Amino acid sequence: MAECIFAFGQCFEGKLHPASLEILTPLREVADRLNKRLILIGLADDKEKFLAIPELKKLLADEVWYIIHPNLKHLPDDLCEKVLVYLASEHKPYGIFFPATKKGLSVAPRVAGSLKTGLCAHVNAFEVKNGNLFLLRPTYGENIIAKLISQRLPIMATLALNAFPIKEAEKEPMIKEVHLPEGFDWSTKLTIKNFKPAKKSPSRLSVAKVVVAGGMGLKSKENFQMLFELAKILNAEVGGTRPAVHAGWVNAERMIGVSGVSVRPKLYLAFGISGAIQHTVGMEGSEFIVSINIDKEAPMMKMAHVGFVCDAPSLLRALLRKLKAQD
Amino acid sequence: MGRIVVCIKGVPKPGTVKVDKETHTLRRESAELILNPPDRSALEVALRLKDQANFEVIAISMGPPNTIPVLQKVYALGVDDIYLISDRAFAGSDTLATSRIIAKALSLLSPFDLVVMGARSIDGETGQVPPETASLLNLPSITYVKELRFVDGKFIAIREDDFGEEEVEFPSPAIVSITPEIDYVRPPSLKRLLSLKEITPKILTNAELNLDEADIGLSGSPTQVAYVFEKTFVSRGEIFEGEPDELAEKLIKVLKEKGFLA
User: Does the ipTM exceed 0.85?
Assistant: First the structure.
């Protein structure tokens, strides 16, 4: 009973979404601490393509269970729900975890609703204490991390993107096909009439080695624009906080934080960013953090490896002037 | 005439919300509420369908009484009716309990063709309620919809998925969640704005919804906050103070030392 942990393996066209591999890293630890088997569940339409997925043999799960049916090609939410709910009722897992991809965020709530269990969003850490699993996530407005516990099994959560590195296993997982019973209803109410693959590869911001970011401390859109100039010189990508996006200073795709992009650059330059937790969870993995803020006590100043107490636009202006003069 | 229900949320104006020290849930009743920005797009989508095909549009919102001004402003945008779903017993609901409450309210408002919600709220940011509510009602859910079309009596959604863009046809009734990007949102009607004070939403309490106490509020929420801790950062680095020019020099020096500048 409750001897296994399910992880949702999001596949498409013979590719496994990297986020599904990321989540196995913390789940591996959890499974080891709680003595459970970690199982990656893959739903796909083509058996050969699935088995040809390169990462399959090196991923951190104990087992990979794959279910094949043509209707699963685009992973329609209602059908994924039915399949996962079936597997959950058969195997009574201790937990079911999803990456916080659009698919994960769309399917997990349906499964949780069906199983009448709790679902925690944006979990970026776990804690195991006295045989209990705590889910950690940043919470509302304040600089607070909440430790959540579920009173019902299975424990379900969507795991924050880019919060965990991908690790490889020493031992190959046991890979097996799971067949659903004869009368299983494979129908879906959704009809995909057209599909256009994404032209862009994962956002350059999410993989950038250097990020220059701005918050409300920059005071205006014109000032914020200076970050783009700086980015050119440093070969960096530009990011912004939610309030800066809300103010129209920068596009939503450049928002760094809980529901935006997560970054792990070598250098993070924060101009006029106070460091609200919804933002910092998106960049706390940065190797070297520099903060420029008029407020010495701002959380970002404490988090930074080097802090400069200064009006952000003024320092940015001076910095650009000097850097341009150098060339 | 078909019916569209738009489910909106009043969220605390950023910076005004307090967290209850006991339950660690938001103290919504004390906050100044604004319309959750993604819901503004959801309303626009519904109102365009109203313009196109004469749908009746009803806006509902689950929240404490301070949600009423938000609903009044929504009425000014041109919806046909507004409902507040409110009861002390609903306070502290997680997304499962919330979805149960909204599902029940929707069933009281059926038949409907479509339920439209914003993809996520800017306070909880889970985005779970639309699909979870759909699952409880055994309806399809279509999330992250960029564009919603109504052609020959059928709904077609253009949605953003992780690997690309999908064109999805689905039967009604269904629940869709709208991503915030939209080109234009209509201004409120001046006439309605002038009579705002006279507009009161219909109220649905648990007397009308008749949900089991064990299924709502804190008791109906399987995930509980066990503990919260403030993320404190002990200053880990050096702090420099001075004039912009000298600090800029210092910063350039640091970046050079670390190898980020030639």
Answer: yes
Task: List the structure tokens of B201.
Answer: 């939403």
Pick from B125, B252, B258: CB nearest A122: B125
CA nearest to B24 within chain A:
A146
CATH number at residue B176: 3.40.50.620
% of chain A surpassing 90 pLDDT: 76
Give domain status of residue B234, yes or no.
no
Q: Tell whether the torsion through CA atoms of B186, B189, B194 and B196 is positive or negative.
A: negative
Chain A from 155 to 174: CB within 8 A of any B CB:
none
- Cβ distance A108 to B223 less than 8 Å, yes or no, reads no
Which residue in B has a C-alpha nearest to residue A319's C-alpha? B248
Q: Please tell me the distance from the alpha carbon of residue A244 to that of residue A218, in angstroms, as a whole number.
A: 9
Indicate the residue type of A275: G
- The angle formed by the CA atoms of residues B103, B106 and B110, to the nearest 5 degrees, is 135
The side-by-side arrangement of strands in the sheet containing B81-85 is A191-197, B164-170, B154-160, B141-151, B174-178, B114-118, B3-8, B56-62, B81-85, B202-204
Look at residue A327 and tell me whether its pLDDT is greater than 70: no
- Residue at B260 is within a domain: no
Give, in words, the CATH class of A4-177: alpha beta
Taking the CA atoms of chain A, what radius of gyration do you get in angstroms? 22
Q: Which residue from B5, B7, B19, B12 is spatially nearest to B122, judged by alpha carbons?
A: B12
Q: Cβ contact (<8 Å) for B240 and A307? A: yes
Q: Which domain holds residue B191?
A: 3-220
* Digit-coded pLDDT (tens) for B23-62: 666 666 667 899 998 999 999 999 999 999 999 999 999 9
Return the CATH number of the domain spanning residue range A204-326.
3.40.50.1220
- Is residue B41 less than 8 Å (CB to CB) from chain A? no
